Amino acid sequence: MTDEFPLDWESIVREQPALDVIPGRLRSIARVLRFAAGQTLYRRGEPPRAMLCVLAGEIRLVRRSAGGAEIIVQRSRGGFVAEASMGSKVYHCDVLAATDGRLLRFPMHAFRQALDSDAGFRSLWIARLADEVRKVRAQNERLNLHGAAERILHYLEAEAADGALTLTHSRKAWAAELGLTHEALYRTLARLSREGIVTVEGAVIRIRRA
Amino acid sequence: MTDEFPLDWESIVREQPALDVIPGRLRSIARVLRFAAGQTLYRRGEPPRAMLCVLAGEIRLVRRSAGGAEIIVQRSRGGFVAEASMGSKVYHCDVLAATDGRLLRFPMHAFRQALDSDAGFRSLWIARLADEVRKVRAQNERLNLHGAAERILHYLEAEAADGALTLTHSRKAWAAELGLTHEALYRTLARLSREGIVTVEGAVIRIRRA
DNA sequence: GCCTCGGTATGATCCGGATCACATGACCAA
DNA sequence: TTGGTCATGTGATCCGGATCATACCGAGGC
Prior knowledge:
2 copies of one chain form a homodimer. Chain A has 210 residues and is α+β, with helices and mostly antiparallel strands. Helix content of chain A is 38%, strand content 25%. In chain A, helix 6 packs across helix 7. The structure holds a DNA duplex (30 and 30 nucleotides).
């Protein structure tokens, strides 16, 4: 719950590139919030008073049903959360911390006002939202594929530049993103490699043929 | 490729609710484009000259790799397509028609200008994008679940009002949205019904307990 | 030093959803 | 009327990914 002053925006943007669209006046009023695993940050029904951007750790938007079932509506391990909360009177989900971590809070009214008055920020924000839609829709198409190899190749084709992809996270994390167990990922990657379809050199993966 | 004048916006908004955010001046310059299955609408590398909104049929954004593989980056059976194309110089995908259908074209420069000059439209557009992000992320969480029952219940919990959901499309379409075969959906729905977890009355599905 | 924890990696087994097959009914057109 | 198409269902089989188990390694803590 501590704030460091002044915030080191250079390193913040490095750890969370989505934040580079934020204009100076918002940067100066942003506050760091540290959270602990299991903590409830906001509850359903409360008015959203801040835009949130996860810097480290995992935040979940959770909806609890009357029957007591708990479903995860959104999970974030980095980047803005609940962008739609800007337009709504109250949260429609609980906001929970799944791990220890840190997030950035921007006062909602200032965020809204910045969007209204700053045309540059506005178009960057629209572009960021549109790009997020694009990325998540691609992720969606990928998850609709059955078969580990298809998902891996879809990821490579969609994300690789010139047929070469450099993994930035661990393979376990990649497996989770692909909706696979890490075992299935290791095995399928090994098979694709044996069959000459891809080459694997550490974190760099290349497609040879599809 | 025919245009009807004047466009009947009342019925258009009824068939595609996302369009209700469009202001009058854009409505008056929108044109209907009819497309045929297999048709290539735009090619990678071309500058995007219009915002597209699918009214009927299926449009796909397809990326072809050097190896000849073809992956679907986005599929749309209704609603805006390639919102991120507004911010980019050229299309990064081919735009193909998967079926016969109709879409609405808005000249890109007019769309951009309307966003710039019309504060009301602008906030509606931002809200729509943010809501799209929310919906697609929820869809994502759902597809990350293994097991047909879990996906069905997640959908019910997330989309149902008061534990009751009225299906607007066919069950086959629902199955596809859930990333399941229709057989798996029918069977699991029947099992959940037998076990008293849900009740099914035609298009209305209710959760009893989870 | 030792010990734990997390990522990497592979083997064996099991199960659930994909697949194939088939029947029915609605609807539309020739 | 007939034939075709499509959504709705259900049954039988198969396969691939989940699951459980095990091992190795490197980093960090004590």
